[in-house]
């Protein structure tokens, strides 16, 4: 049977492939975007896990939008006005897929930063969107390019990760947030704010969502993968009711609803008295690991390489002099360290800045130090000086 045309152009996720190679126990993996298993709040889940055994109703089919008590909690937790609502999805990845399927016709223009989250490029590719990129700088997207793009290409939506971007770790400044929101309003472009790393801020001050400045023009995607656990597969989408209702229709066809027992478990967790402490613990753990990785890189990277400091999230972006980053990633893997080369974060055939994405949340401090030794040995030996 011939596969659909829309799928023929889609590459299988390089990251998922490299992740399986990185399972070899001689390899230290900085390739995935995996939280640490130590950071899963299993103890805080225990009371609800026990209660679930007495709640047969949650094992029944449920509402497509989500488990009612959880939706009520999140409406309040996210401080949503009555004109807005929230729905649950099977990971924020599904939220993204629902948005693409509900709103994108083949050829519709979607703007993204370059580089950008690979999973979003896959989703928009599957609905045959016309993906247009704008460059990203240290504060967020290049605003001149963004306005030109809005003016000349009349995009339907702008998808972005303003908090601790995947892959670069960049966090948009307040001014950039305000200006992007103003441009979305001026040109009537929907802003799709993907915020899975927002709670992982370990230094600096919290900044409002971009959507806070354009609530009528935006949809926010949140994930419970990083603050609870990815295996729960739970995310939430919020926005004005008119934006959300079509997503519910698409979800009915996709999976009827997300797992109700898992949603009940999440609610118990979010309501646990120690959930705030749990988030503080994850932030402290990741801050330490980030600092170990950053310091080791600073001491050992060749001078021709660069990197950014980050205030949260999971990634450091190491920039390199012009080179074949796929070949480099392969050599690194053979030398016991897995990383992700930059071209996978750009649409195909798009020129890519030579860089590597390094994750700091899933390896211990000792492993991070050893990984940097292996990485920088290879870089010193292979990069032109
Ligand atoms: N958006 C971004 C930017 C991501 O990096 C990821 C995955 N790490 C997702 C969405 C999907 O997350 P989830 O586990 O909630 O599906």
Can you give me a brief rundown of this structure?
The chain is of the alpha/beta class. It is globular. The protein has 2 domains: 5-30 and 276-384, Aspartate Aminotransferase, domain 1, CATH 3.90.1150; 45-271, 3-Layer(aba) Sandwich (Aspartate Aminotransferase, domain 2), CATH 3.40.640.
Walk me through this protein's architecture.
The chain has 385 residues and is an alpha/beta fold. The chain has two domains: 5-30 and 276-384, Aspartate Aminotransferase, domain 1; 45-271, Aspartate Aminotransferase, domain 2. Helices cover 42% and strands 16% of the residues. The protein is built from 13 helices and 14 strands. It has helices at 5-8, 14-21, 42-52, 68-77, 92-103, 118-126, 143-153, 174-187, 241-255, 260-271, 275-300, 325-334, 365-382; strands spanning 28-29, 84-89, 109-114, 130-137, 140-141, 157-160, 190-194, 218-223, 235-240, 306-307, 315-319, 337-338, 340-341, 355-359. An eight-stranded mixed sheet has the order 2-9-8-7-6-3-4-5, with helices on both faces. Strands 10-11-14-13 form a four-stranded antiparallel sheet. It has a two-stranded parallel ribbon with strand order 1-12. Helix 3 crosses helix 10 (260-271) and helix 7 packs parallel to helix 8. The chain is globular. The termini are far apart. The site of 4'-deoxy-4'-aminopyridoxal-5'-phosphate has 14 residues, from helix 5.
């Amino acid at each position: 049977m011939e596969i659909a045309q829309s799928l023929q152009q889609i590459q299988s996720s390089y990251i998922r492939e490299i992740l399986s190679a990185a399972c070899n126990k001689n390899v230290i993996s900085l390739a995935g975007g995996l939280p640490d298993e130590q950071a899963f709040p299993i103890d805080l889940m225990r009371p609800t896990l026990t209660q679930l055994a007495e709640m047969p109703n949650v094992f029944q089919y449920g509402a497509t939008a989500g488990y009612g008590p959880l939706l009520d909690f999140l409406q309040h937790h996210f401080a949503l006005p009555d004109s807005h609502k929230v729905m649950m999805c099977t990971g924020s990845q599904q939220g993204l897929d629902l948005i693409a399927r509900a709103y994108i016709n083949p050829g519709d223009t979607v703007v993204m930063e370059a580089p950008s989250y690979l999973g979003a490029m896959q989703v928009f590719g599957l609905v045959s969107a016309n993906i247009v990129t704008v460059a990203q700088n240290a504060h967020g997207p290049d605003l001149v390019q963004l306005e030109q793009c809005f003016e000349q290409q009349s995009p339907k939506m702008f998808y972005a990760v303003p908090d601790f971007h995947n892959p670069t770790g960049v966090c948009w400044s307040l001014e950039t947030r305000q200006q992007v929101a103003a441009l979305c309003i001026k040109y009537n472009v929907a802003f799709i704010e993907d915020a899975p790393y927002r709670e992982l801020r370990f230094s600096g001050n919290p900044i409002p969502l971009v959507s806070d400045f354009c609530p009528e023009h935006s949809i926010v995607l949140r994930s419970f993968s990083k603050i609870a656990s990815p295996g729960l597969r739970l995310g939430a989408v919020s926005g004005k009711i008119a934006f959300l209702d079509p997503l519910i229709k698409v979800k009915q066809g996709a999976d009827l609803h997300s797992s109700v027992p898992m949603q009940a478990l999440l609610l118990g967790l979010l309501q646990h008295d120690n959930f705030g402490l749990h988030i503080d613990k994850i932030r402290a753990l990741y801050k330490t690991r980030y600092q170990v990785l950053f310091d080791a890189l600073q001491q050992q990277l060749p001078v021709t390489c660069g990197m950014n400091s980050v205030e949260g999230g999971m990634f450091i972006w190491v920039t390199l002099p012009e080179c074949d980053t796929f070949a480099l990633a392969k050599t690194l893997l053979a030398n016991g360290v897995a990383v992700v080369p930059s071209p996978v974060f750009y649409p195909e055939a798009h020129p890519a800045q030579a860089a590597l994405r390094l994750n700091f949340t899933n390896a211990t401090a000792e492993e991070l130090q050893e990984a940097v030794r292996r990485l920088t040995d290879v870089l010193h030996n292979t990069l032109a000086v």
